[in-house]
Known about the structure:
Layout: E1 2-12, E2 15-24, E3 27-32, E4 49-52, E5 57-60, E6 62-67, E7 72-73, E8 76-77, H1 82-91, E9 94-102, H2 109-120, E10 127-133, H3 139-150, E11 155-159, H4 170-183, E12 186-190, H5 194-206, H6 213-217, H7 221-238, E13 242-244, H8 250-261, E14 266-270, H9 272-276, H10 279-284, H11 306-316, E15 321-322, H12 355-364, H13 370-384, E16 402-406, E17 411-412, E18 432-433, E19 436-442, E20 445-449, E21 452-453
This protein binds dihydropyrimidine-2,4(1H,3H)-dione and zinc ion (3 copies).
Amino acid sequence: MKTLIKNGTVVNSTGTASADVLIDGETIAAVLAPGSHLLGFDIEKNVDTVIDATGKYVIPGGVDAHTHMEMPFGGTNASDTFETGTRAAAWGGTTSIVDFVVQYPDQNVLDQYHAWHEKAAGNCAIDYGFHQILSDVQDSSLVAMDELIKEGVSSFKLFMAYKGVFLSDDGQILRAFQKGAQNGALMMMHAENGAVIDVLVKQAIEAGNTSPYYHGLTRPWQAEEEATHRAIMIANLTGAPLYVVHVSAKQAVEQIAHARDLGQNVFGETCPQYLYLSLEEQLGAPGFEGAKWVCSTPLRSRAEGHQHHMWQALRTNDIQMVSTDHCPFCMKGQKDMGIGDFSKIPNGIGSVEHRMDLLYQGVVEGNISLERWVEVTSTTPSRMFGMYGKKGVIQPGADADVVVYNPNGHTSIGLNKTHHMNMDYSAWEGFEIDGHVDTVLSRGKVIVDGDEYVGAKGDGKYFKRGLSQYLI
Ligand code: DUC
Ligand code: ZN
Ligand code: ZN
Ligand code: ZN
């Protein structure tokens, strides 16, 4: 099967050019001057399919490196399965995810890894890889880290919050980081001071402050800044590379920027919710509606300027990339467990479908360049997590994961508009995007054509990742 995407504007993180993209089977075979003939050979007459991308961008498919499909969490399961979540991702122009295998305390790391394969295999619309969450760092976990790297799991997430669920103490973090420094794994950190948060939460509930808004107030930026700093210091001490997930506070950004200025391998990820949404808007939501945006780290105050600062950090590379932390829950039957006690609201927002569009709106509004859009949503995630060459770039030899994006199209986001995630609300209701995902190819196969999903479950395959290709 040969496909020619002709007359488009190919956008890579390194630059933009008018070019045709020739796909042979699952792979990009050539990027050519528009209308070129190869050695007198008329390409267009010799392909099976021609996609006309006149006036459109041709970009590498999105790589969302932070998802939680069907994760057991907060007394329930994240509402998207690998099937529904990866299909929604495809609709939105994301062609790879890296999901988190969870080890809860007392669970065996490798058993969990195999269990995640069972959930995902044969169900995904797009390619997927795994990170491993370690909730209980013991000798066996450290041995498992070596084993998992051989399986293509080259990044490990630890938590400084969620006591009894995920929390590691600083000694455990040190040991895991020592292992990462030794075997080359990228260490990922949920950086919030859990002990401080737990007391603030208890005090708020006892004082009768039970509404969703208090979720944010009891997870203050100081708890994020302090934990980010502590993680950076433990990484510095051990020599492990560090990737801080879901950075929301501008003070945490400053910690990361400072460490980077000193030459340390420290990286930061933010999410669309920390660029667009705020604590004030959550406060303004009537009744229990604020639960829709309960996630951790929490939404931050717009008056304090976190969102503005985050866009800036994304431009200057103080923050390297944008993932979703896609962790969807329905209001009915899930989020509503926290009526009367915000601490019982399952933490998470669903965005896997909208990340490419939301960040493209950042291009339209002058917050990032076109090339930076591709870089933070596709190229850097691919390099960061050892997928570059195959994912995150339009070049010969890469997997033909390609999105034709129409800058003259429009996307209205909302529950009864574009919404394919398995949720009974949209955290992004009413967002209007001055662009549209027109066509999505996953390894050469068209899986989204216009507004129709034309792929099949099981199209997506496990991606065995290498070590990070982003280290200094
Ligand atoms: N934050 C969330 O919002 N959900 C899942 C776990 C996390 O760290
Ligand atoms: Zn987290
Ligand atoms: Zn997460
Ligand atoms: Zn559409």
